[in-house]
């Protein structure tokens, strides 16, 4: 936390060591369903290195998510789960053509954003299922050359169809399909974009593939670093790295359904609406990269929890921006509702540009303000009720009463 004598973290450039840790988390190859490179390869060793002895790591049977529990088994404490998701959107092999083209799906990417980009393909050994090899050096293509494109594609009046995308591995010679098949490549093999994050041209900016959502996992990990040193006395925190968010929030739903936290906060990327092209007619609320983390109201979010976070941030002068949702937050904040149990929930985020492309762009001030905002909020929860901490009745009895609203 900042003091009056020190410049707050979000007003300074992120230190190189901290940026490198963020980069390490985002670089972990963790496509949907294969997230263990991030959760078990980077985050679990980090947790084991810095956690107090009494803290416990929960693991699960059906997903590679992990939860670091500050007070395992102490179900009488109010529990707060904060969730980042480790899974990355990916392409998948559909089939192999006679000419050696590896046809792929586009998943949650716009097909036109993929053309020409280098990728990594992960394929299992044919005689040793479960053991993966990495294939590099390929690019995603569709048209081959402008000379073979439809005239409407040349003018921009027609786009690229998902069914036109293929992975080019530069195979030549006889029987190209057989050459590809001998590599063990098969339907369903995951493919991810190959561009690690790096600092951008403008001050405190950074860009690359997969800010969505290594950034949420990084924020959760940094909170672990903070509270492992100055432990909270009253609340139980469940620091969660979930899976399968990109295909329906299934990982967080399973984890939250098992642990049933009282408060659930999703930490995920958000959009910089102000800089998004072609959004004028939609009249979106203002949300801008570099002006602080976002805090969501609406949908299933708890008005009491949102207000508490706002007050904590205002008390420390931490910059935040309000966002809203209609039916669905679009984040792991929905996990309790989807799992069918009672919890106060909201979502925090980091406004980024170019989401679901190879050049997602963010600002370190938003990430650092999110860490500070959650730190202040957790401390506020821990100090409620004259130092005894928040209790479940606080959550049950502090709903906004609009019938008591004052008249302007």
Can you tag this structure with a few keywords?
Aminopeptidase; six-stranded antiparallel beta barrel; alpha+beta; 10 helices; 2 domains
Report on the architecture of this protein.
The structure is a single chain. The chain is an alpha+beta fold and 408 residues long. It folds into 2 domains: 9-88 and 210-398, Aminopeptidase, CATH 3.40.630; 91-193, Beta Barrel (Elongation Factor Tu (Ef-tu), domain 3). The chain has 10 helices and 17 strands. A hairpin with a 5-residue loop joins strand 10 and strand 11. Helix 1 packs across helix 5 (211-229), helix 2 (36-50) packs parallel to helix 5 and helix 5 (211-229) crosses helix 9 (364-387). It is globular, with a radius of gyration of 23 Å.
Task: Show the helix and strand layout.
Layout: H1 16-27, H2 36-50, E1 56-59, E2 66-69, E3 79-85, E4 91-96, E5 102-104, E6 118-125, E7 128-141, H3 151-155, E8 166-168, H4 176-182, E9 190-193, E10 198-199, E11 205-208, H5 211-229, E12 236-242, H6 250-259, E13 263-271, E14 293-298, H7 303-316, E15 320-325, H8 335-339, E16 344-352, E17 360-363, H9 364-387, H10 392-396
Parallel strand pairs: 3-12, 3-13, 13-16, 14-15
Antiparallel strand pairs: 1-2, 2-12, 4-5, 4-9, 5-8, 6-7, 6-9, 7-8, 10-11, 11-17, 14-16
Helix pairs in contact: 1-5, 2-5, 5-9, 7-9
Short description:
This protein is α+β, with helices and mostly antiparallel strands and 408 residues long. It has helices at residues 16-27, 36-50, 151-155, 176-182, 211-229, 250-259, 303-316, 335-339, 364-387, 392-396, and strands at residues 56-59, 66-69, 79-85, 91-96, 102-104, 118-125, 128-141, 166-168, 190-193, 198-199, 205-208, 236-242, 263-271, 293-298, 320-325, 344-352, 360-363.
